[in-house]
Structure formats: C-alpha cells, structure tokens
Fold:
Amino acid sequence: MQRPVHPVLLGCLTVLCFTAGSDMAQAATSTNPILAANNEIGLAATGTLMNYQEHFSPAQTHGKSDTESGWMPGFAVNYSLMGDYFRSLPNLYFDVHYDYASGGLHYQGFLQKPGLPNIQSTENATTQRVLARLGMGFPVGQRMLLTPYVAGGYQRWSRNLSATQEEVYHAELVGAGLRYQFAPMSRLVLSANLEGLAVIGGGMTPSGNLIADHLGNASFGTSGEEKLAVDVDYRLSGPWHSS
Structure:
C-alpha cells in the first residue's frame, strides 16, 4: 500500500566547537582572516532533535501518522583547506564534514485499520553523515569572499528496534551551494551558506527476523534537501578559533 513519507526533520545545535588553524592559516591571519578561518581542523559537541513523520491517507487512519522523535547527543569533525594550490585555480576550497549522533527515540505507530490501538515504544537510533565540498573563492573587496562549490556525500540512519532487529536507511547526496563570508575585524569572520542537495540511491535494509531477511532491501525515490546556515568564527589566540 502506498504511503506518503515526510522526510526526516533534523535540528542540530552545536554546543561547543574549537578549531585549530593550519600553518598557512597562521601565516595569513594578519592579512586575511577569511583565509585563516577556511584552513582549519574542527571538533564540536552537538545535539540533534529528530522529528521523523510518515503521513498516511486520512481515509484509512483519520490523518494520524507514524512518528519518531527525541534528542540525540553527538559530535562533529570538520577539515577545511583554502589556498592557491594551482596557478589556474586561485583560492581553491575543500571541506569535509562528518556528523555522528546517537540516542533513544520515542516511537508512536498507527495501524492502518481504524479502531486498533496505536503502538508506542523506545528505540536506540544512530545517524551518521559525511559531506565533502569542492569550490573556488572569489574576493569581493578586501573583507568579503564568495565561494560557489559542488558537494557530495552519504548519510545513514540505523534503527535498533530490539536486541536482534534492525533497520538501516541510507542514501547518497549530491548538489551545490554558495558561501558568503565577511570579516568585520581581524579576529571575526561571519558566514552564510546556501546549499541544495539531491538525496539519491536511497534504500532501507531490514534484518533480525525471517520476514525482514526474506523481503530484503527497499528502494526510495529521489528527494531534496535545502539548507541556509549562518556561522561565526572568532580567533581566540594563535591557531585557536571558536565557532
């Protein structure tokens, strides 16, 4: 039976993030704070609010849906480079970002036959996501930089329904974006990032019981993700930054 599925809604809060600049960034800090901010290794403690919903036909379930929600602590690791590595490609930009989150989610499920009670449980879930970006920066005056880029990555959501039963959702990511950076002072860089990604090759792999093992993988159609993010990078001392 066909079921419209609303995509996973994730809210991510960076609790603490410190970054260490590379040798190139330290050399450029006094003259180009944006270049320094774009040459970093970063580590952050994060929290993710999961709100997943599956909306069924109102004629069958009176508009109710399956939901999974909860708070998942985690961490993020980031590595970025920007510099004149090739003469024909000044301000070449590369960035790779990894996110990990894990925690207990509250599940509430509605059966498709009216009148039957709903199902409630708690499950352990883990999400992982890696995204790489490659682009080139274009200076706009002395204190601004525009960086268009292409992006690609992978995401995975593991649902541990019981000690032996698991469902793994996975998909590839491909898209592009535009990053705007402004340095109002030598220690401070403000950024805005507009990004659009296509979620392709998605599927779900169940395991842990005879029915799941017999059914095998399920494939999903292509969907999209759009994101507008803002960031503040402040140089504390030497190579150490906070963002």
